[in-house]
Amino acid sequence: MIVSYKWLKKLTEVDLSVEDLATLIGERLVEIEGIEDISDKYQGIVIAKVVEATDIEGSDHLHLTKIDDGGVVRDVERDASGYVQVVCGAPNVREGMLVVWLPPKTVVPETYGTKEPFVLGARELKGYKSNGMLASAKELDLYEDHSGILEIRGDRELGMSFIELFEYDDYLLDIENKSLTHRPDAFGMIGFAREVAGIQGKKFSYYSWFDQLQPEPETDGSTETPKVTIDDPDLSDRFEAIVLSDIDLNAERPMGTQTFLARSGIRPINTTVDVTNYMMLLSGQPLHAYDYDKLLKVGGGKIDIHVRLAKKGEKLKLLDGKVIELSEDDIVIANGDVAVGLAGAMGGASTEIDAKTTRILLESATFNLYKMRGMQMRHGIFTEAITRFTKGVPAELGAPVLAEAARMICEQTGAKIVSKIGEDYPGKRETIQIEISLAKINDTLGTQFAAEDVTDLLGNVGLETDARGLKFTVTVPYWRNDLHIPEDIIEEVGRLAGFDTINLTLPRRDFVAVRPDDFDGLRSKVRSALVRAGANEVLTYSFIHGDIMKKSGQDPAQAYRLTNSLSPELQYYRQSLTPSLLVNVHPNIKAGYDHFALFELNKFHTKLAGETDEKVPKELDGLAFVLARSKKAQGSAYYEAKQYLDYIAETLGLEFAYEPLEEKSDYPVTQPYEYRRSARVWDARTRERIGVIGEFKRSVQKAFKLPEYSAGFEIAPRGLLKAVSQLENSYRPLSKYPGTERDICFQVKSDVSYQQIVDSVSEGLSTDLQTAIEPLDLYQPEDGETKNITIRIKLVSYEKTLKSEEVNGVIEQVSAHVCKQLDAVVI
Amino acid sequence: MPSHDTDAVREKLLKLVEASEAPRDVLRAPDLKELYGAIATLPAEERGAFGKAVNEVKLAVEAAVEAREAALEDSDVSPIDITAPWDLNSSRPSLLSTTQGSQHPLTKELDNVIDIFTRMGFAAVESRQIDDDFHMFGSLNFPDDHPARDGYDTFRTEEGFIPPAHTSTMQHRILKDGKAALEAGGQIAAISYGRVFRNEDVDATHEHTFYQVEGVFVSQDATLGQMLGTLRSFFETYYGQQLRIKTQPAYFPFVEPGLEFAIEKPAAIGGKPGDWLEMLGCGMIHPNVLEQAGIDPAKYRGFAWGGGIERLVMLKYGIEDLRHFESARLQFLRKFA
Q: In degrees to the nearest 10, what's the CA dihedral of A583, A587, A589, A593?
């Protein structure tokens, strides 16, 4: 919404500069997004009189004029009498006319602020010099009239600045609509001015017409009172209509109304429409004017207006020429059976006012704001009127505004009121009264207001208080339909006085630091471990493309799908984190990174996980890690990823077991992994499920352009937490005796795994010594049939220094066990 | 008369695909062509059903071809010993250099913010990434169809779930969980943090995905002055200096009064006196919100606030474009190594 500073000052006393006022409004009413100084647009433009106008020979439309600006414009060529020569193409130029002159070096206002502002000069036209130009309303950016130059009425001083005459020494305050959603009253200048008075600590006083809640405009009664029916009281609280006759749409337009309309962002159209718009800006109550005779024709000679829901399949041609198909949730205005307007949104084409209109029916109504909101979205109509209706226009406002608008139209066009007001008012509300104590106000805000402070602050903006000692009854005026409960009154007091005047304190409590949540602590630990190990943490979107899922082998049907996503790229909730990392491998390689690891700790969602007790989808926490190397390296990428996973285990004091991944699985998490080169991961001691690690399927590698050397894992931090929480303190004091170690190499068939050797060795080490097994070397000769696994066995006794033969005995026993169990040979 | 037995053709072609080394060739089999050819020879009323059946055969064969191709492609994948510490004839792979590792700047800042609040006595709860209308709106005093809902530009899933547009989606849960402690003479003091979503086109200053931190405090004697004091105290700790604050009235259905909260831009991030930074929205918890959680608004009062994390991070490092955060570009991430 645009608020004119000048207009505001006409409605209430303001003794602050525009900057200070804007700051105060920001602190106590609503955010101001910007202040625009509009005087600059009309700089240098003056009022002048045409003293001579003759046709230019050889041109069908150009006139040569001499104008008198009282000699005020400097540096311009003048004749002996001091007049300035201007060539003008307008058909209405004539001697004696007062016009708006744009002297050389001024900018045509219509082009002001555009990419190519048009700066006037002294140019030759058909051999005659033209000093600047005489301007039309359109060129002055006032309204769409380019049929001739703008004529200034009345007696004006020649050379008077245009800015002064039309009060363009003004600033426009750009108000953020969103933060006034709950304040329909502030969507009118009167309401806004009332607030401006209140926040300055001044009492606001009203127009006399504004207080006339039951006006009875004088009428000759020559036309029947329009019959008005609200079919369902849920649709509209109140609907009123009045008929005016002898309208002259070509009547001269009062410039005051028009220039304030134009600067508030509404194009002037004709006297009648301008009045309805002006009254809407002033009061917040939108009005609509129908051509009365067209309305009669639609109704077969009768006026029988209904506010009703649209019928299925019903169509309506709107003022903007669009034909819309109505929904059964749309409210329409109908005469008889025929819809003639989309209520509150836009009038219908069939009853549009045009140049021949002489009689109008003027409507003032209010509609169900929720229905208005649906209609706004459904039909994409965002007019000034519907914007106000969606905030909830109070019904009481309608009558005084209708009467005042009718009066203004009569005054400006010579029309007369020919009917009484026809009305249906099913939604009359009781006046709201709110009880509140001074103590509650001060306790909630942390303030020390006295009773008079409260009474004054509220009284300034029309909230009358009946004080009984330290308790108040506040009577809520009809325009404040946002005030219902004591907290609303507390806000008004705090706001009008200024929240920034409140003393700052801290809650009265013992501040005891809270221990961070265990899960948060665990995630932090894992995150820092990975960062220490050279990996880069990423955050990627929670939503992905269905194709990314398919490329990863996942089924989009199991994913939650957004119905209103911004693009297909963000359509599905991801069912695991790995695909989001895979997407980002290739771009980073292309950017010149040839060996890196990405990881993400985040949530993911799949329908397979089901819902919680609250009937919302279960959320799954994941840690995904992907490692890539653009150039071929020794060994398989799997083992490098495993190195990271074992590092995490070590950081947390866990030990992971790696077991074969099944060929086919239903879990979205495991889908991208190639089962022959991947493993399921468990915590070895607690058997908690940890996740999956491996290289990716060829199809996945190809789809994501992954290098051959790439691998990753996706694990469940909650699984880690469960395993960690079961950890017992495994610390054992160090032995006083030196330990010893032996290396041993087993030759086994190539399908025997490293883990089988370790398990077999552990089993064979049936001894009360403390033992440890470490890998030393894994060798496979070229034939590929066997492999040699060399391990180191460490032995420590808590009782004595081990003798060589004791150690040999243990090792022999172990070797024999392994050789027998795994068909191995010690070499 | 050509064969009309679509089932037989399907079975035959699927077998061919399963055995083929070049499965795509099966799609050009004459059997399929004949089936298509047969459509036109049928009486008009039978064409629809038969055409559909033929099409289903084609789709089934195509799916089989794709599966077979993927299997063929993977057929020479050699298994590895998943339990081994490193590859055969190789050695233990080393981890990447510590100097190139980096934590994401957003999680780093979240850690920092959570740390300050937990020291101030606020428990930290992670916010949900998918929720329902009740938690996102209903429990927070947004009536159905209320225009204030428009301001949140929410996404919806087919089932009607909502990717939350604010971390306040946790507020009802926090209040319910804290009710017992409150009624035993204690207070509710918690923050919720996490990812939120708005249906908004992305550019340098707009993101559909961002991070918020929300705070909730309820006691017998909470005041608006305490709320402003708590928030100033947080920002003073965060920036390590004294700060001036200012507020502006604002409308959020779940608070009354509602405010926007700004701090004077700290010198540490290049601020000069008179530069203000809007930091968050806040207010006294609306009595309806307390009531929804079973807390008696006649006995208890509370305040709540919520603000974004990206802004803190951008100001701290001078980051110019919101889109960097979820870009997963190493070029950006390694600046935080």
A: -110
Q: Cβ separation of B249 and A531 shorter than 8 Å?
A: no
Give the count of beta carbons closer than 10 Å to the beta carbon of residue A312.
9
Q: What are phi and psi of A559, to 5 degrees?
A: -100, 150
Query: Chain A interface, mutation test: which of B66, B73, B76, B83, most A Cβ atoms within 10 Å?
Result: B83
How close are the terminal C-alpha atoms of chain A, in Å?
89
Q: Residue A564 and residue B81: Cβ atoms within 8 Å?
A: no
What are φ and ψ of residue B8, in 5° steps?
-65, -40
Closest CA to A182 of A498, A499, A500, A487: A487
Contact B83 A533 (CB under 8 A): no
Span A518-527, average pLDDT: 94
B121/A512 touch (CB, cutoff 8 Å), yes or no:
yes
The share of chain B scoring above pLDDT 70, in percent, equals 99
| Nearest chain B alpha carbon to A441 | B223
On whether the CB atoms of residues B284 and B224 are closer than 8 A, the answer is yes
Whole-angstrom distance, CA of residue B187 vs CA of residue B180: 9
Adjacent-strand bridge partners of A64: A54, A87
Decide if A135 contacts A150 (C-beta within 8 A). yes
> Cα dihedral angle (A377, A379, A381, A385), rounded to 10 degrees?
-80
Tokens of A514: 């809270």
Residue B1 reports pLDDT greater than 70: no
Q: What is the distance between the alpha carbons of residues A130 and A77, in angstroms, rounded to a whole number? A: 10
What is residue B71's three-state secondary structure? helix
**Angle at the Cα of A502 from the Cα atoms of A498 and A508, rounded to 5 degrees:** 150
The side-by-side arrangement of strands in the sheet containing A656-660 is A536-537, A595-604, A620-629, A709-715, A689-696, A673-683, A656-660
Chain B residues whose CB is inside 8 A of the A491 CB are 249, 256-258
3-state helix, strand, coil in chain A (%, to 5): 30, 25, 40
- Which chain A residue has the Cα nearest residue B157? A562
Backbone region of residue A532 per phi and psi (left: phi > 0; alpha: psi in -120 to 50; beta: other values)? alpha
Of the candidates B83, B131, B223, the beta carbon closest to that of A755 is on B83
Instruction: Give the mean pLDDT of chain B.
Output: 91
**Residue pair A140/A110 in contact by the 8 Å Cβ criterion:** yes
Q: Strand A740-749's sheet: what is its strand order?
A: A770-779, A786-796, A740-749, A825-826
At B279, give phi and psi (nearest 5°): -110, -40
**Residue A245: strand pairing partners:** A416
Q: Is there a contact between A183 and A38 (Cβ–Cβ < 8 Å)?
A: no
Distances (CA, A) of A795 to A170, A737, A804: 92, 11, 12
- Residue B319 in 3-state DSSP? coil
pLDDT tens by residue, A767-792: 788 889 999 999 999 888 999 999 99
Please state the ipTM of this predicted complex. 0.89
- Of A812-826, B225-239, B264-278, which range is least confident? B264-278
Query: Would you call A528 and B229 a contact, using CB atoms and an 8 Å cutoff?
Result: no
State phi, psi for A127 to the nearest 5 degrees. Answer: 85, 0
Phi, psi for A34 (deg, rounded to 5): -175, 160
User: How many whole angstroms from its chain centre is CA A128?
Assistant: 56
* Dist. CA A451–CA A456, nearest whole Å: 9
Q: Which of A296, A189, A304 has its CA nearest to residue A245? A: A296
Residue listed under structure tokens 């009486």 = B43
